């Protein structure tokens, strides 16, 4: 995400994933966390068969958007915030939206990130995926 990329710039190209441009270590932590979470959910369901726990995967849809933004109607400069204070990711902690020096894109619905947070369009895509998976099960 732009705040992480802006605040923890990697000078080593191997620190960024080639398919996403995201920080490799941050993604590895997210994948590890999600694996442990899914294992814990399986354990709860095994020990409590009358309980239904729904796992809402946030990581995978975001990665899918970052890998193929055009497929989902997003701009190709996917890691750049719509509203921010310049730089490679249009993110600057001292120039947030509404502050002097901040810029705003023309169409937020084509951006994954607003100001380091997801845009409404991004959350809509993710929520649709969750709701569709619940309806299928």
Automatic annotation (TrEMBL):
Q: Which N-terminal residues, if any, form the signal peptide?
A: none
Q: InterPro entries per the record?
A: GDSL, SGNH_hydro_sf
For this UniProt record, the keywords arranged alphabetically read as follows: Glycoprotein
Q: Which GO terms describe its molecular function?
A: hydrolase activity, acting on ester bonds
Glycoprotein as a keyword of this entry, yes or no, is yes
Q: Name one Pfam family in it.
A: Lipase_GDSL
Similarity comment text for this entry: Belongs to the 'GDSL' lipolytic enzyme family.
This chain belongs to the protein called GDSL esterase/lipase
Which source organism does the UniProt entry give? Oryza sativa subsp. indica (Rice)
Taxonomic path? Eukaryota, Viridiplantae, Streptophyta, Embryophyta, Tracheophyta
């Amino acid at each position: 995400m732009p705040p992480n990329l802006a605040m923890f710039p990697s000078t080593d190209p191997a620190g960024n994933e080639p398919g996403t441009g995201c920080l490799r270590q941050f993604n590895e932590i997210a994948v590890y966390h999600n694996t442990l979470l899914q294992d814990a959910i399986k354990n709860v369901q095994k020990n409590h068969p009358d309980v239904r726990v729904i796992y809402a995967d946030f990581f995978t849809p975001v990665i899918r958007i970052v890998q193929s933004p055009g497929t989902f109607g997003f701009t190709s400069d996917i890691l750049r915030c719509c509203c921010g204070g310049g730089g490679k990711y249009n993110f600057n902690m001292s120039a947030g939206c509404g502050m002097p020096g901040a810029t705003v894109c023309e169409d937020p619905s084509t951006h994954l990130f607003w100001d380091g947070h997801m845009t409404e369009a991004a959350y809509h895509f993710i929520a649709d995926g969750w709701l569709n998976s619940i309806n299928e099960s």
